């Protein structure tokens, strides 16, 4: 029986950049995360930040440009190389990079951070529940974890809307995996339970792409992007919209 393994994006980093980061999907995600993080008191002064599974580092580099020191980690050398090039182009000196997985990072590093970012990574891991505990070990007492993950409930909802009934009935299992589709979408109540068991307190929940992915006319994602983004930001903390976000963004505070 084949065992699950953590997913690396070596070999497809450029495709990821084009299809995700440079798309309206990526623009909505970046805007929502920056808005949520900007409201944290901890970021009102220069802060040391750890970005786990940083990928190409768009969010981290934006925070570094604001004066924060960010350490970016990822298992993909290709993704980190793109992040490094972007940092050099922006002449950012307060960033560092390390090719390492979360399990090794949590067991080998002694440094603890007041803020950790872990965005769109859990759903690519073989053992996402363990990752919550590993992240907690890297967080300073009373620190904050910014956790964003792919929402299985929203994936089910969207596929039913578009008539993909067989795909939903098979619990999204297909013979040929689409390389950029998360291998293990997560049930939000499960993730919240894992976080509570690990000693986190939920500060805030935000839906990411609550409307964007459900538009019948996909052309509106670009032609009316500003209006769409304004609506996302207005309603994505309100229910039922927050729970319909393709991703869930949780701000969590560790026990002191």
Explain the overall architecture.
The structure is a single chain. This protein has 256 residues and is of the alpha/beta class. Helix content is 41%, strand content 20%. The chain has 12 helices and 7 strands. The chain has helices spanning 13-21, 24-38, 58-65, 77-89, 102-108, 128-137, 152-161, 165-169, 188-197, 220-223, 225-235, 241-244, and strands at residues 48-52, 69-74, 95-99, 113-119, 139-150, 200-208, 247-254. It has a 7-stranded mixed β-sheet with strand order 3-2-1-4-5-7-6, sandwiched between helices. α2 (24-38) runs parallel beside α11 (225-235) and α5 runs parallel beside α6 (128-137). The longest helix is centred in the first third of the chain and has 15 residues, at 24-38. It is globular, with a radius of gyration of 18 Å. The model has no long low-confidence stretch (mean pLDDT 91).
Record field, number of beta strands = 7
Distance from N terminus to C terminus (CA atoms, Å) equals 42 Å
Please tell me the overall pLDDT: 91
Low-confidence stretches: none
Q: Major sheet: size, sense and barrel closure?
A: 7 strands, mixed
Tell me the structural class: alpha/beta
* Broad shape: globular
Structure annotation, total helices: 12
User: What share of the residues does DSSP label as strand, in percent?
Assistant: 15-25%
How much is the radius of gyration in Å?
18 Å
Strand arrangement across the biggest beta sheet: 3-2-1-4-5-7-6
Helix content: 40-55%
Please write out the topology:
Elements: H1 13-21, H2 24-38, E1 48-52, H3 58-65, E2 69-74, H4 77-89, E3 95-99, H5 102-108, E4 113-119, H6 128-137, E5 139-150, H7 152-161, H8 165-169, H9 188-197, E6 200-208, H10 220-223, H11 225-235, H12 241-244, E7 247-254
Parallel strand pairs: 1-2, 1-4, 2-3, 4-5
Antiparallel strand pairs: 5-7, 6-7
Helix pairs in contact: 2-11, 5-6
